[in-house]
Amino acid sequence: MIGMNTATLKSKWTAKQMFIIAGIWLAFLISFITRLSWSTIMPTAIDSLHFTVQQGNSYVTIFYIGYAISVLPGGMLADKFGYKKMLLAAVFGNFIVMIAMVFMHGYWMGFGLRFILGLVSGPDLSACLGIITEWFDGKKRATATGIFNTCTSFGLTVINIYAPSVMIHYGWRATMGVTALFPLAALFFAYFALKGNAPFPQQFGIKRVNGEVKAESSWARLKGAINNRSVWMLAITGLFATGAKWGVTNWANLFIVKSLKFSVITAGTAMSIFGITSLVSMIVAGWISDHSKWSRHVWASIFMAIFTPTIIGFALTPHGNLPMLYFWTGAMGVGAFMFSTITNNLSVEVAPADQRGTVSGFINAFNQSGSFLAPVLLGQILASTGSYVSAYLIISVFPLIAVVALLFVRESDADKYASVSTKNMEK
């Protein structure tokens, strides 16, 4: 009876753990609201600013270039200076850039600000995943990650609820101004939510040389971290799957308005449904993974395989058919996000304890490379064929490539590496 009560107690979340999740959830929510702000207002803003579709799309691309450049250094810095500090720095950077975008004039000023927004956002995911490993054990971690991941979908829902209405009544600059208030609120909340001593604090590897204890350098940790098959397979997975996810997501509003000929408000409603279905699916994915005997990479493969048919269904939505638009947009939300709970969890679980920020940053660099390459590919296909549908059908192959890569991931690789590191340290 005592054993059962102890097990039950350990399975429950503490109030502090709930507060921690709320803090990182809100902080990362801000990252998604700010990065998606341009995609949401783009159909109207490009007309106001006299941009071409390709110029408007370049604002999406340049953000992900900046983000891809900074995610690996951001993860390494998070390992060095602490996850909380890097997360708060990223949120503060989002606030400053969004304020500046309210006053942008001309193509190149906005282009530069979107690049900087990508740079300052780089450490956010690694820092958040690192915080989860510090506060949650292995039996709670996937569920915690799933709940945390819902902020990405909720960000889509939130911005598509308020942005179209604010834009229609007050213009796109006002929409940017409202969006800039979110990082400010998140900064204060996260600062107080993340206070306290974690039960599983970040551990730094050491090497013993002639009896002297020396900490490993960031570059030594990076070299050791990527000497791992599962890390590389997750990187390939991210390149294709995350590229497809953000390629179709960032183009969805534009596709619905310009190709399917629905209104901006209808597009916003459809993308809110997308956000809701993806939100629910990520929580479900985390719960299944924590309570199943199957390996996490198997579940990730199953969930990712759903993505391809939903992209095809969305691309082939009949013009003017509102129920089908809502159905396929909602289904694509499940396909685009359900797998991410498990792949994000794997990115820290295959890493040694002292390299979680570095490994997740390395994998996220490939994720974001896919995120900026996919819109470029979509733009090139659109320019050459004039068909949004063709662009979506081609990118629907990407998740299938990612499924194959996932089959070679093994969660036990971190343990093997850790044992090798321990032997090296003892020599």
UniProtKB/TrEMBL annotation:
<dbReference type="GO" id="GO:0035435">
    <property type="term" value="P:phosphate ion transmembrane transport"/>
</dbReference>
<dbReference type="InterPro" id="IPR020846">
    <property type="entry name" value="MFS_dom"/>
</dbReference>
<feature type="transmembrane region" description="Helical">
    <location>
        <begin position="231"/>
        <end position="248"/>
    </location>
</feature>
<feature type="transmembrane region" description="Helical">
    <location>
        <begin position="362"/>
        <end position="383"/>
    </location>
</feature>
<feature type="transmembrane region" description="Helical">
    <location>
        <begin position="323"/>
        <end position="342"/>
    </location>
</feature>
<feature type="transmembrane region" description="Helical">
    <location>
        <begin position="18"/>
        <end position="38"/>
    </location>
</feature>
<dbReference type="Pfam" id="PF07690">
    <property type="entry name" value="MFS_1"/>
</dbReference>
<feature type="transmembrane region" description="Helical">
    <location>
        <begin position="115"/>
        <end position="135"/>
    </location>
</feature>
<dbReference type="GO" id="GO:0005886">
    <property type="term" value="C:plasma membrane"/>
</dbReference>
<dbReference type="InterPro" id="IPR011701">
    <property type="entry name" value="MFS"/>
</dbReference>
<dbReference type="GO" id="GO:0061513">
    <property type="term" value="F:glucose 6-phosphate:phosphate antiporter activity"/>
</dbReference>
<dbReference type="InterPro" id="IPR051337">
    <property type="entry name" value="OPA_Antiporter"/>
</dbReference>
<feature type="transmembrane region" description="Helical">
    <location>
        <begin position="174"/>
        <end position="194"/>
    </location>
</feature>
<keyword id="KW-1133">Transmembrane helix</keyword>
<feature type="transmembrane region" description="Helical">
    <location>
        <begin position="389"/>
        <end position="409"/>
    </location>
</feature>
<keyword id="KW-0812">Transmembrane</keyword>
<feature type="domain" description="Major facilitator superfamily (MFS) profile">
    <location>
        <begin position="1"/>
        <end position="414"/>
    </location>
</feature>
<feature type="transmembrane region" description="Helical">
    <location>
        <begin position="298"/>
        <end position="317"/>
    </location>
</feature>
<feature type="transmembrane region" description="Helical">
    <location>
        <begin position="58"/>
        <end position="78"/>
    </location>
</feature>
<feature type="transmembrane region" description="Helical">
    <location>
        <begin position="87"/>
        <end position="109"/>
    </location>
</feature>
<keyword id="KW-0472">Membrane</keyword>
<dbReference type="InterPro" id="IPR036259">
    <property type="entry name" value="MFS_trans_sf"/>
</dbReference>
<dbReference type="InterPro" id="IPR000849">
    <property type="entry name" value="Sugar_P_transporter"/>
</dbReference>
<feature type="transmembrane region" description="Helical">
    <location>
        <begin position="260"/>
        <end position="286"/>
    </location>
</feature>
<feature type="transmembrane region" description="Helical">
    <location>
        <begin position="147"/>
        <end position="168"/>
    </location>
</feature>
<keyword id="KW-0813">Transport</keyword>
<protein>
    <submittedName>
        <fullName>Major facilitator superfamily protein</fullName>
    </submittedName>
</protein>
